Amino acid sequence: MSIVINTDLDYLKSRLNIPESRMAIYAEKTVDEILKAEAAAGNQEAIQLAADMFTDVNQLIELFRLADPQNKLVIMQAMTSSQLEKLVPMLEVDDLLQGFSFFTQDSLLDLMKDIPKEELVKAVFEMFSQRQVIEFMPEKELDKLLTGTDMDKEMLLQGLQYIPEMYLQQVVESVTGEETQGTSSELILQISQFGDMDYKNALENLQPAQKQQLAFILANQENKLFEKFDTDAYTHIINRERNKEETIKSMQVIKPEYLQKMITELPQDLLSVVVTQIDTEKFADALINKFPQLLAQFVAG
After folding, report:
1. How far is CA 56 from CA 81, 285, 287, in A?
2. Distances in Å between the alpha carbon of 233 and those of 60, 73, 229, 236?
3. Which of 32, 48, 55, 64 is most buried by its number of CB atoms within 10 A?
4. Angle CA(292)–CA(1)–CA(80) in degrees, nearest 5?
5. Measuring CA to CA, how many Å separate 181 from each of 31, 43, 108, 119?
6. Residue 203's closest CA among 239, 230, 241, 175?
7. From the centroid of its chain, how far is CA 296?
């Protein structure tokens, strides 16, 4: 199959000092054929350019008009998927974000499920405040956080100091089955002395608004607690509360290495379009140093 891109014959004519009469003869010839013909005729510039094409980034850019995205696209469409993926790390974050517009919201959220929770939470906080995250989080997720075996019990008991006394009385009574009196400090002390099951039940019996308040107090003190919530809970909240454009914008804080992996999930034809945004000099350098055989194909036409 013939591979053709828009080479700059004017540049070739100027660089090799080819007269108009000979350029007319070369109208239908490939770059390789023109260089060979000129070299055979003793044109030293042709010999030099033949070498420069495989070593000089600027010469390659000029000759094949690589600043033209269409020319880049033609070359990329001739690449294998593995070759194309080698160019992805050369894209800027803004280029990657533009590429995510090819995904649906559902596809984006599926991709976000596969990145580390720390990265997902960073993106979540681009869309929501800490208070909003707690308010939107399902009650079962709050229960799991508050009763988790790795929750710092001392920190949690201190957080209970901010829960109104009447709600503390209610949870103690829900466990003991008896009417309870006492100050907040006394009630918290009683809760602290419950066995594991009763302690867990007491926390789960808090009113939903009080669970939210307690979870917010704790997570505000220790932000890593936000990573305890399930990924599915986060993606469900995002899908319900934010559109695709807002989701993509939030992804700017995710480490580039994860964005790069995500973008390679695009079909190859769409990935080629995204990668055309690559810096022209970086692309030319990659052709010379990473894909010399592919470059030779285009030179040969």
Report:
1. 26, 8, 11
2. 50, 39, 7, 5
3. 64
4. 50
5. 93, 103, 52, 46
6. 175
7. 33
Q: What pLDDT, in 10s, does the model give residues 202-230?
A: 999 999 999 999 999 999 999 999 999 99
118 token code pair? 């720390």
Q: What Å distances lie between residue 26 and 23, 132, 241, CA to CA?
A: 5, 68, 61
User: Which of 282, 291, 296, 210 has its CA nearest to residue 61?
Assistant: 282
Question: How do residues 66-78 score in pLDDT, each as one tens digit?
Answer: 999 998 999 999 9
**What is residue 291's three-state secondary structure?**
coil
- Residue 205 CA to residue 195 CA, distance in Å, equals 15
Q: For residues 177 and 247, what is the distance between their CA atoms, to the nearest angstrom?
A: 47
- CB neighbour list of residue 300: distance below 8 Å, 6 or more residues apart: 30, 32
pLDDT digits (tens, 9 = 90+) for 234-267: 999 999 999 999 999 999 999 999 999 999 999 9
Diameter of the chain measured on Cα atoms: 108
Whole-model pTM: value is 0.82
| Radius of gyration of the chain, Cα coordinates, nearest whole angstrom | 32
Q: Residue 82 is encoded by which pair of tokens?
A: 């593995």
Q: Which amino acid is located at 20 in the chain?
A: E
Residue 14: strand, helix, or coil:
helix
User: What burial letters (b/e) apply to 112-130, b meaning 16+ CB within 10 Å?
Assistant: beebebebbbbbbbebbee
As a whole number of angstroms, the distance between CA 131 and CA 110 comes to: 25
Reported as a pLDDT band with limits 50, 70 and 90, residue 301 is low
Amino acid at 205: N
Gap between the Cα atoms of 86 and 71, Å rounded:
18
d(CA 184, CA 20): 97
